[in-house]
């Protein structure tokens, strides 16, 4: 039974970091506007690794750049969440980075909805209706040489406030349907893989 337990538990404790995702120059993200960014998580794997994030430049908070970057993975079962509001396809950009091509489309979401089972989220990613058990996952970010880089994702129970002044508690990334706080958060097993 030792090999079985080792294969089941060891991945949770090994270094599974991925490199950052270059989303291109920060000039492509105007302040207080939402941009839908599509990117390849693993360019060598091709389209099967395509992901989407909703990015808003919140401006500066105490002279530090602030961005809200929300994953479009529904926290119910992992279906792709969509922005409910107009998309400006005419202003869609394709940015070439060293890793791959990034698609950037301006969107004006009133909220976010999941077409699979009716999950709904507000503009900050908080669950408002349907079966999701928490707020939408987010990405950490960095700015290097004037370029916005996506770092590791993290899970969120609830977001208080909006934009740069929003407060939240970050948890390690959890799978769809898994709580991150309270008693339910303790009842789920350790995640053995990076769920980005």
Topology:
Blueprint: H1 2-9, E1 21-25, E2 34-40, E3 50-61, E4 64-71, E5 82-84, E6 93-96, E7 101-107, E8 111-113, E9 120-121, E10 127-129, E11 138-144, E12 147-160, E13 167-171, H2 182-186
Antiparallel strand pairs: 1-12, 2-3, 2-7, 3-4, 5-8, 6-7, 8-9, 9-10, 11-12, 12-13
Describe the overall structure.
This protein is mainly β and 196 residues long. Helix content is 7%, strand content 41%. The protein has two helices and 13 strands; from the N terminus they run H-E-E-E-E-E-E-E-E-E-E-E-E-E-H. The strands form three sheets. It has a five-stranded antiparallel β-sheet with strand order 4-3-2-7-6, with no helix packed on it. Strands 1, 11, 12 and 13 form a four-stranded antiparallel β-sheet that branches. A hairpin with a 6-residue loop joins strand 8 and strand 9. The model has no long low-confidence stretch (mean pLDDT 85).
Key features of this structure:
5-stranded antiparallel β-sheet; 4-stranded antiparallel β-sheet; 13 strands; mainly beta; 196 residues
**What share of the residues does DSSP label as strand, in percent?**
35-45%
Number of helices: 2
Morphology: globular
Radius of gyration: 17 Å
Distance, first to last CA: 30 Å
Number of E strands: 13
Query: Which strands sit side by side, in order, in the main sheet?
Result: 4-3-2-7-6
